[in-house]
Every structure is written in C-alpha cells, then in structure tokens.
Amino acid sequence: DTAVSQTPKYLVTQMGNDKSIKCEQNLGHDTMYWYKQDSKKFLKIMFSYNNKELIINETVPNRFSPKSPDKAHLNLHINSLELGDSAVYFCASSPQRGGTYEQYFGPGTRLTVT
Amino acid sequence: AQSVTQLGSHVSVSEGALVLLRCNYSSSVPPYLFWYVQYPNQGLQLLLKYTSAATLVKGINGFEAEFKKSETSFHLTKPSAHMSDAAEYFCAVSDLTGRRALTFGSGTRLQVQP
After folding, report:
1. Does any CB of chain A come closer than 8 Å to the CB of residue B98?
2. Distance (Å, whole) CA A95 – CA A67
3. Do A45 and B102 touch (CB under 8 A)?
4. Residue A105 and residue B56: Cα distance in Å, rounded?
5. Of B12, B14, B46, B18, which Cα lies nearest the Cα of B32?
6. Less crowded by CB within 10 Å, the N or C end of chain A?
7. Do A42 and B106 touch (CB under 8 A)?
8. What does the pLDDT profile of chain B (114 residues) look like in tens digits?
9. Number of other CB atoms surrounding residue A16 within 10 Å
C-alpha cells in the first residue's frame, strides 16, 4: 500500500549508458515531480507533470527526459550518463485541486555512475 | 523568486533537551511553508505545514513550528528530543503559482546525544 514507489532503489551503471527510473503513485494525485538530491543533500526540482502535461522543466540537460504515460506514473530516462549524474532522485506527487501544496515523496533512487 | 535559508547545517542536542531548527524564507507573497524529515537512506516525510491558517502549527512526532511574518521565519521546535529524532530536516517553501514546485533549504542534520 505504498503511496509513492520508485524502482529501482539502487542503480549502478557506467558512463555513457542509458537508464530509466520508474515512479508510481496510488494517491490519486494529478501532479508528479522529479527532484534531484546531490551529495550535499541539496534538493532541486527537475520536472513536474500535471495530468500527463509537462509543467516544469528546469535547467536540466536534455539527456534527461521525463515521460508520463498516465497521471499515476512518471518515469525518468537518462541518456549518455555522466559522473555528475550520480545523485539520489526522488519522485513526488501532490493533488492539483484543493489541498495545500504539500508533496508526498517516494523512497528515492540512488544512482551511481562509474 | 522564493528562497529558504536554514541556519546551522548541524545541530546537536542531548536526549530530553529542546530542539530548535531555524528556517527563514524569502517570498514576495505569504507562502506555504513545510518541514520535511529525511531518515538515513529514506525518502522525505512531511512533518508539518503552514498554509495561512493558524500561525502555530503542530505536526507529527511532537514537532511544532511557528510562522512569524515579521521575522520571515518558520522555526521548528520540539520540547524534548528523542534518539529517534536524529535525521536530516528540510524547510521548504511552495511556489504558489501553477507550478507548485517546492524550494528547499540546505537541510539541518540533527544529532541527539544520549
């Protein structure tokens, strides 16, 4: 009955590879997000989708491409991985209507690029 | 643009002592404010939120925070620290436009000494 789930939890890969991280929420929320947490624990928004429509696309290399097949899923595909992509990636969701803007986070995916 | 400043990257208290984690925000309009907690190797859990109702907000695990507009502050407190409170704490402010992105502070690591 996990509210926001991510797979995989750990991802170790080599430079130049392409990888995907999947996120699913069962909260019935309309909006989903990807955040990146760097080695200093700093969290920064990358993308958000509302009902499968891209709302936020921060200054992120275009090697990162989010895809939302439906409002319960938001995946993150990363091409040509670089060492600097090593981080923890968090998925989150929030209701679009009403609510008070709080977001619910998944457990994170720790990506290590070697 | 909104921003959040957390004073003190590390705070250490004795078990049973008062916990005070500081957060100051910058926003052109009254914001929504949040405190999240992150335990090691876990996602972020919402502790409490301020959404322009009561200025003193109570959250989970005995934490509370007071919104002070004159000081642009939203400090987190707990009267008596428990060993299980040791974690990273993040203050966040919400973008009140349709983007709804959260802007996070840099985090404060709370250590609780026996």
Report:
1. yes
2. 19
3. yes
4. 24
5. B46
6. N
7. yes
8. 789 999 999 999 999 999 999 999 998 777 889 999 999 989 999 999 998 778 899 999 999 999 998 999 999 999 999 999 999 999 999 877 767 789 999 999 999 999
9. 10
pLDDT value of residue B52: 78
Cβ contact A101–B96 (<8 Å): yes
Task: Please report, as a single letter, which amino acid is at residue A30.
Answer: D
CA distance B91 to chain A (A): 11
Token digits of residue A85:
């992509």
Cα B103 from Cα B88, distance rounded (Å): 16
Q: Which residue in the block uniquely carries the two structure tokens 């919104």?
A: B67
DSSP-derived secondary structure letter, B30:
P
Cβ <8 Å between A103 and B102: yes
